[in-house]
């Protein structure tokens, strides 16, 4: 089966975008893995699918699959690219688009400077709702936040890593590091991603605080490995940093793929807002193998 796709990227986090507004393609997890494959397919961190409005007051549905083929709740950089896609392809003329995801409704807004701002909803710090199994663990309180000791079996590090756990609709474990460039992302990222205390696995964030308004971040993503940027990871890291009393309400997040700006009041009922780039790279078509 031949399908059309659009390749996009937001701060270097890259996507294959599929249009199912005119009908379902009927793809399987194996097809998503094939499309994400950087040697045999197109190559992407995630596959984003555009579907028609599911309800009154909602403009589109937004479906996200990781490179490993698994469907996930949320993707921040993808949300910006989603908005850019539906505008550039003439699927809407709106500047602010209401989009249904597995994690709820988000509202990307296309701004005059070409960037996109997304209301990413409120952060969730309750361990059970991340979800994170905290049984038998004693958190260390800091500011209004907490850090949990996470023992990493098989890592060279003896001492457990201290992580803040946050959900932005998808789960994140954020640790503070002195220097993201020397952080053991490749070694400990996979151990955190599949740690048994995260029943749905987890995105592992490595946060270096430069000052109260500037941070550097690397993320080993659930189902994709380290990406050049992670939008929900930036939201989770800044929200955790604000709760720990380390950051102000508006933070520039320098990722390896580009700059994201995150704003949050610090009130749990308030949304986190993310602003960043969204770029259409090329349109293409590809023959999907019957049994990839
Ligand atoms: N790997 C993530 C999904 C993509 C998130 C990231 N690409 C973003 O921009 O938020 C997860 O499994 O929850």
UniProtKB/TrEMBL annotation:
Keyword flag Protease: no
Positions of the catalytic residues: 75, 75 (proton donor), 230 (proton acceptor)
What's the catalysed reaction? (2S,6S)-2,6-diaminopimelate = meso-2,6-diaminopimelate
Q: Name one GO molecular function term.
A: diaminopimelate epimerase activity
Task: Provide the residue positions that the database annotates as binding substrate.
Answer: 13, 46, 66, 76-77, 170, 203, 221-222, 231-232
Q: Name one GO cellular component term.
A: cytosol
Q: Extract the InterPro entries matched here.
A: DAP_epimerase_AS, DAP_epimerase_DapF
State a single Pfam family of this protein: DAP_epimerase
PROSITE patterns this protein is in?
DAP_EPIMERASE (PS01326)
Q: What is its EC number?
A: 5.1.1.7
Has keyword Ion transport? no
Query: Where mainly located?
Result: cytoplasm
Tell me the keywords, alphabetical order: Amino-acid biosynthesis, Cytoplasm, Isomerase, Lysine biosynthesis
> What family is this?
Belongs to the diaminopimelate epimerase family.
* HAMAP family (UniProt xref): DAP_epimerase
- Subunit structure comment from the entry: Homodimer.
What name has this protein been given in UniProt? Answer: Diaminopimelate epimerase
- Lineage summary: Bacteria, Pseudomonadati, Pseudomonadota, Betaproteobacteria, Burkholderiales
